[in-house]
Automatic annotation (TrEMBL):
GO terms for cellular component: membrane. Residues 25-234 form the AB hydrolase-1 domain. It comes from the Bacteria. Keywords: Hydrolase. One of its GO terms (molecular function) is monoacylglycerol lipase activity. GO terms for biological process: acylglycerol catabolic process. InterPro entries: AB_hydrolase_1 (IPR000073), AB_hydrolase_fold (IPR029058), AB_hydrolase_sf (IPR050266). This is Alpha/beta hydrolase.
Length: 253
C-alpha cells in the first residue's frame, strides 16, 4: 500500500529532445553514489535522451544533495513504495528500470513486486548476496572518529567506496545501511517476471554471484540475458559503451 508516509525521494525528470521512442527509464544508483555521479557523469542520461527516452533520475535516501531529507524507515520496502509512487504519479505507464550495484538489488525487488509498472529490467554489477547486511557500523564509526583500524574486510572495502566520493555524508549512509539490515536481500523470495538483462565486468568481485540470479530467473521462466564486460570491474563497468549499447538494444527488444 502506498500511504502518506511514502519517502520523498529527490527526483529529476529529464526529457528527450527528440521524438519519444519508448518508455521512460528509471535509473537507480548504487550505494555511496548519486543520480548525478552514477548516471550523469557516466553519460547515461544523455545517451537515453539522445535515443528518444525520457529519464527519471532519483537519489536514494542518504544520498545526493539533501541526504537527510527523509524521516522514518529507510528499509528497502519503503524505498520500493516510493519508487512505485513516482511511476504512478507521473502516469507514464510501465517504465524500463536500470539499477547499478545496490540499485540493481532495489530494481530486482521493485520489478518483482510491481510487474505492472516495469517493462524491462536491467541490472548492472549485481550480486545474489547482501553486502551491506554484514557491514559493521560501529567499527566504521570508530574509524571515522579516531582512525581505529577496521578489522572486517567487507566493512573496510565499503568504507573505501564511501571515501571515494567527497560529498558523501557517512552518518546518512549508515542510516540507510541500518534500514537495509532490517530487510536483507533474499532474491529467491520474489523473482521478477519482467524480461531481465544482467551485466557486470568480468573483474567485478561484487558480481561473482550474478549467475545465481540468472538461475533464479531461468527457473522462474523469466526471459533473461547476460553480458560480461571484458576487463571491467565494479567501479568502471558503468562507463562502458558496450553496456549502454546492449541496454538500449535490450530495451527495444
Amino acid at each position: 500500500m502506498i500511504g502518506s508516509m511514502t519517502l520523498d525521494l529527490n527526483l529529476r525528470v529529464i526529457r528527450t529532445n527528440s521524438e519519444v521512442s519508448g518508455p521512460s527509464v528509471l535509473l537507480i544508483h548504487g550505494f555511496a553514489s548519486s543520480g548525478e555521479s552514477n548516471w550523469e557523469r557516466a553519460r547515461w542520461t544523455n545517451y537515453f535522451t539522445d535515443h528518444g527516452r525520457n529519464v527519471l533520475l532519483v537519489d536514494l535516501p542518504g544520498h545526493g544533495t539533501d541526504p537527510h531529507r527523509n524521516e522514518g524507515s529507510w528499509a528497502p520496502s519503503q524505498i520500493r513504495q516510493a519508487l512505485a509512487a513516482i511511476v504512478i504519479d507521473l502516469d507514464e505507464g510501465p517504465v524500463d528500470v536500470l539499477g547499478y550495484s545496490l540499485g540493481s538489488r532495489l530494481a530486482w525487488e521493485f520489478a518483482a513486486w510491481n510487474p505492472d509498472l516495469v517493462e524491462h529490467l536491467v541490472m548492472g554489477g549485481p550480486g545474489a548476496n547482501d553486502m551491506l547486511a554484514g557491514f559493521e557500523i560501529e567499527q566504521a564509526r570508530k574509524f571515522l572518529a579516531s582512525g581505529e583500524e577496521i578489522n572486517d574486510d567487507l566493512t573496510a572495502s565499503i568504507m573505501q567506496i564511501v571515501a571515494a566520493e567527497p560529498s558523501n555524508d557517512a552518518e546518512a549512509l549508515f542510516k540507510l545501511i541500518e534500514g537495509i539490515k532490517t530487510e536483507p536481500f533474499e532474491p529467491e523470495s520474489k523473482i521478477p517476471s519482467t524480461p531481465t538483462l544482467l551485466v557486470a565486468g568480468d573483474l567485478d568481485d561484487l558480481a561473482t554471484t550474478m549467475p545465481q540470479l540468472r538461475r533464479l530467473l531461468k527457473n522462474a521462466g523469466t526471459r533473461n540475458e547476460v553480458l560480461w564486460l571484458a576487463g571491467r570491474n565494479h567501479a568502471n563497468a558503468v562507463t562502458s559503451r558496450e553496456f549502454k549499447e546492449k541496454t538500449l538494444e535490450f530495451l527495444g527488444a
